[in-house]
Design brief:
By secondary structure, the chain is α+β, with helices and mostly antiparallel strands. Helix content is 26%, strand content 50%. It has 3 helices and 5 strands; from the N terminus they run ααβαββββ. The chain is globular and about 45 Å long.
Length: 129
Amino acid sequence: MRTPDRGEVEAAADAIVEAFAATDGPRYFAAFAADASFVFHTEPALLDDRAAYERLWQEWVDSGWRVVACSSSDRLVQPLPGAAVFTHTVDTTVETGEGRESYRERESIVFAVDGDRLVAVHEHLSPLG
């Protein structure tokens, strides 16, 4: 079982952040396994697969939501045999039908080794402060 290195984990996380920052749903969701789960403090329930999150994302986009900026800092990479945990602080600004909103949150993404790449299998977002 291969243990991913720090650079590989950061590259996989960067791809997710960059796609999110561009409001590029297809590129963003391609980084997640079909059975990935999502826990967001802004949502009342667990999203237990990628399709559930994709439906929610589309509702946001249809309502006028888009990401204006997103940056990652305070990173921690924990490689494990066959997986890795990536934790960071994420600063996000979005445009909504109601105006601009900015957030500072902590996020953890669990990656699994899938052949020669890492695929995200879980994302957890919590408020910071």
